[in-house]
Design a protein that fits this description.
Elements (H helix, E strand, L loop, with lengths): L3 H4 L5 E3 L14 H12 L4 H16 L3 E5 L2 H14 L3 H6 L6 E5 L9 H4 L4 E5 L2 H4 L6 E5 L9 H4 L6 E4 L8 H7 L4 E5 L10 E5 L1 H8 L5 H4 L13 H16 L2 H16 L6 E5 L5 E2 L5 E4 L6 H6 L3 E3 L1 E3 L2 E5 L5 H18 L1
Parallel strand pairs: 1-12, 3-4, 3-5, 5-6, 6-7
Antiparallel strand pairs: 2-8, 7-8, 9-10, 9-11, 11-14, 13-14
Helix pairs in contact: 2-12, 3-12, 4-10
Length: about 350
């Protein structure tokens, strides 16, 4: 029987890069897949489902409220829109027509996702001093959590009295990080793929009244409510909502020490296929460091990347300067064996 990928003329990928949107995010566990399948089989009121899912997520991450959204990028756009509209249906319907300003620290110039805030129509302005930037009467401050050590930290930003939208997309480990950021701002945005949920899932958690303003803008009210809501394009299905909650529940119950040992075991097996390889930690912000092992680094191996990617299956890897990096977080034992076999065959041909 022809597979779904081959039927479309698409090669299967062995993902040795890690969790990336353009490779589909993550793979759902059997339990999460089962939750999605159950939601797919029967109908539900999506507004009720979003309310119930949000309450469950808020309890898990110790936030006042939460809302499932289609990923952290959508969460940022919706959060900023909520800061502009503040529950006013006419203002929300007019978006992205607005003269609103959102501040971001110039110290966060390396941040790549400020554009997501601009989807609401707001103008994103980088400033050296947030206090001086208050002269622009901003509706929000955008704060990338992973850059908290650069510039003014969140604790100081919160004291300015302006709603803060935090991008904490991948800060899911340890699980306590979810609670740390979810309870620390008006809106904190997370991507479900980083806790092994659906690629098109995520949530925003924060203050109750702020999340209510966000909910007022989402897709469910466009046809059934009085306003053509801004969030119509950020649609969710029942299965994605259910899978996002199930993945988060599973993440909090997971034995993370065993998870990391599994990555290290796969790395040790994979290193045998690449003479001279060393075991390292590949971070979610794409740095190679010492730490819990989840990657194999092949010094001078960057030249192998194109050949590995050109095969069938296509082995996708990370190139770091002259080095080749293979992340084991997204590999199975079978796939590690496949990569080893591919390397052996290539070495035999070259010899």
């Amino acid at each position: 029987m022809e597979g779904v990928y081959s039927a479309l003329g698409v090669r299967r990928v062995i993902n040795a890069c890690g969790i990336y949107t353009d490779l589909g995010g993550s793979c759902l566990s059997p339990a999460v897949w089962a939750a999605a399948a159950e939601a797919n089989r029967t109908w539900a009121s999506v507004p009720d489902l979003l309310e119930g899912a949000g309450a469950r997520i808020a309890g898990l991450v110790s936030a006042e409220a939460a809302r499932v959204v289609p990923g952290a990028s959508a969460g940022i756009a919706l959060s900023v829109a909520a800061c502009i509209a503040r529950g006013d249906g006419a203002v929300g319907e007019a978006l992205p027509a607005t003269d609103a300003v959102v501040l971001i620290q110039r110290a966060h110039a390396a941040y790549r996702y400020a554009r997501c805030a601009a989807l609401s129509g707001a103008r994103v302005v980088a400033v050296d001093s947030l206090a001086e930037g208050l002269e622009l009467s901003p509706v929000a401050i955008l704060h990338p959590a992973h850059l908290d050590d650069a510039g003014e930290p969140l604790a100081s930003v919160r004291e300015l009295g302006v709603p803060v939208v935090v991008d904490a997309a991948y800060l899911s480990h340890p699980p306590s990080e979810l609670g740390r950021w979810a309870s620390g701002a008006d809106f904190s945005c997370f991507s479900a793929k980083y806790f092994w949920g659906p690629n098109a899932g995520g949530f925003v958690a924060g203050r109750r009244e702020r999340i209510a303003d966000l909910a007022a803008l989402d897709f469910t009210g466009y046809e059934s409510g009085p306003w053509r809501t801004f969030g119509r394009a950020f649609k969710l299905d029942r299965a994605t909502i259910a899978a996002t909650v199930a993945a988060l529940e599973e993440w909090f119950a997971l034995d993370h020490a065993a998870r990391w040992e599994g990555y290290a075991r796969l790395a040790r097996e994979l290193a045998g296929a690449f003479p001279g390889a060393v075991l390292k930690h590949f971070t979610l912000d794409e740095r190679i460091v010492d730490g819990p092992v989840n990657a194999v680094v092949v010094p001078g191996g960057a030249r192998l990347a194109d050949a590995l990617a050109a095969g069938d299956p296509s082995v996708r890897t990370i190139v770091d300067g002259d080095d080749l990096v293979l992340c084991t977080e997204t590999l199975t034992t079978t796939e590690v064996a496949e990569i080893a076999a591919i390397r052996r065959a290539a070495t035999t041909v070259a010899g």
